[in-house]
Each structure stands twice: as C-alpha cells, then as structure tokens.
Design a protein that fits this description.
320 residues, alpha/beta, Immunoglobulin-like, 2 domains, five-stranded parallel sheet, 11 helices, Sulfotransferase family protein, P-loop_NTPase
Length: 320
C-alpha cells in the first residue's frame, strides 16, 4: 500500500512546525504542499486556486495526490479525509495544559489577544482543539500519532513505520519562555480539565497507543489497530461491537475469545462497517464484528478478545 502523500494534521503548539519543516527538507519543496488558509503566504498556489478561489476541493486534492508527498496545515481531519487512506494521516498531540498555555502565549504574542489566561481557557474556540482536529475518524485508525513530549522518540518511530529519514529539528519555540514545562495553579488546572475533557482523554489514549505501537514494531509484529463501536445500553455486558485491522495485510484479523482466561471460541473481524468504508479505513470497510455472548456465559465472568498474531488483548468485558 502506497503511504504517500502523507496528510499531516498540524495541531497548533504541538511541535508541528519542527516536523513540517523537517518533512519539507526530506521530501523537497516541490513535493510539499501547505494549507494554512487563504491569507497565508505558505499555502500552496494550487490550493489557493482550487480550494479558496474556485472552491473545488476535489481538484485541490487531485493536485495534491498527483504532485505531493506531504500535505500539512492547520486543518481538521474531515477536510481532506475522502482523499487519504488513514494510514497516511499523521499528527502530534501534547499534554493539554501545556498545549493550551503555549497556544495562549502564541496568540497573545502574535495575534494581539488581550484577555487573561483564564479568559483564554474559557473560550470554546480554544477548548479541546486537539480532539476537534481528529474528529470524524476512529482514533486508532490514524496512521501515526506522535507525542510532543517524546519528540525525538516519535520521529524515530515515524521513520521506522514509514521507511523515511526525517531529521529531528527544534524550531518555533517561545524564546522568552524559561526552559522546562509551564507551571499552573490548582485553579488553572481545574479549569483546564473542566474545559478540555476530550483532549485529556485523547492524550492519555495516545500515550498508551504510542508505547503499544513501539513495542509491536520493535518485535517485528503486525501493527494491529482496533476499537470498540457504539453499543446500546441494553446490550452492554451481553455482547461486543468492535472493529480491527492491520494495514499491512489484506486478511481480516482473527482472534480467540477467552472466558476467565480459557479459550472458548474464535472470531474473524470481517463484517462490513459503513463508517470504515466511508473513511477508507481498510478492506473497503469489512473490518467489524459483533460478538454476542452465548447463554453459557455467566454473570461476572470476564470476556477477553485476543488477537491471534500478536496475542494482544484487544477487548475486555464483564458479563452482566
């Protein structure tokens, strides 16, 4: 599967500038397209013409697909989602309080923001910016999620997965800021958490996923991707609704069903999921499975779904 062009969702103040400049140096200016809005001098002429002047995103995306190896911009996932396989979508996330403070400093310094830091936190347009940028796709389907606080390590993992040689750069920092992390009062942290619950959930998830992907790649194991899908309240504890796949293979994932750690059944994640098809996840959307618990499963027993190739426990539930 061809990974290129890559679609880099540049979330503000997550080390994205360092990454996009390093990517441009690696891929070359002619193969790098930027979309930072109609008023930005960095936005590529093809995008200015087709996206902003003619308002024909299809033709803009056609130019990108035909000419670029890397697209970057302060855009959200849905903008170019129809034109990219999720494996080709990459981003970085940052600890939410640090991202918000850095964004506040940037906005005050360069965009004339006059409010206080607490004012900034309370504005909905600045809340949950990281999760908003990725809205519309299953998080585990995204090709690569780097961690700002583990930037060098992230670049190493990125290069390993995409077979690239992007260098570690460190640019666009606030030079007036003392070294180290921003510090916060208890009131500030409380307010940040209240306004950004989705970003905190995303960051916690991204840290776990980063370590999992690093471990799988280091062992030469398939990088499996998976997640739970919506389930009616009445069905919770009685069945699992899930998706899973590996971008590097055409075969459906197979898994064992464990009941109290004993193998009792097996399944294949090969059923159609409309959202998977719409977002070009993999296998034309045939990546799902509903597993209804047999009548022999008793209340309180633990159900696990273990992927066969990696022996990874993808899902865990308690029978109710």
């Amino acid at each position: 599967m061809n990974n290129f062009p890559l679609f880099f969702i540049h979330i503000p103040k997550t080390a994205g500038s360092s990454f996009r400049v390093a990517a441009e140096q690696y891929f070359g200016s002619d193969a790098t397209y930027f979309d930072y809005g109609q008023g930005s001098k960095e936005t590529h002429p093809d995008i200015l013409k087709y996206e902003y002047e003619l308002k024909d995103r299809y033709l803009a995306a056609k130019c990108i697909k035909n000419n670029a190896k890397f697209l970057s911009g302060h855009v959200i996932y849905p903008k170019y989602a129809p034109f990219f396989q999720p494996k080709s979508v990459v981003t970085f996330v940052r600890e939410p309080a640090q991202q918000i403070r850095s964004h506040f400093e940037h906005f005050s310094r360069l965009h004339g923001y006059k409010g206080s830091f607490k004012d900034f936190i309370k504005e909905n347009r600045f809340a949950n910016m990281q999760s908003k940028a990725l809205n519309g796709v299953w998080n585990d389907a995204i090709g690569f999620i780097g961690i700002t606080e583990r930037y060098s390590e992230s670049i190493t993992l990125f290069n390993q997965y995409y077979s690239t040689d992007i260098k570690v750069l460190d640019i666009n920092k606030n030079t007036a800021k003392p070294s180290g992390a921003y510090m916060f009062s208890e009131d500030e942290i409380s307010l940040i958490r209240k306004m950004n619950p989705q970003d905190f959930a995303l960051y916690d998830y991204a840290l776990k996923r980063f370590d999992l992907h690093k471990d799988l790649l280091s062992k030469g194991l398939p990088l499996v991707r998976f997640g739970e899908m919506n389930l009616a309240l009445k069905d919770k504890g009685k069945q699992l609704n899930m998706w899973g796949c590996c971008y590097e293979q055409e075969e459906a994932l197979e898994a064992d069903i464990l009941l109290d750690d004993e193998v009792v059944d097996e399944l294949k994640l090969s059923d159609y999921r409309a959202q998977g098809a719409e977002r070009n996840i993999h296998r034309s959307g045939f990546v799902g499975k509903v597993y209804k618990y047999p009548a022999t499963f008793e209340k309180g027993q633990v159900v696990k779904v273990r992927e066969k190739q990696t022996q990874l426990i993808m899902f865990k539930d308690v029978v109710s």
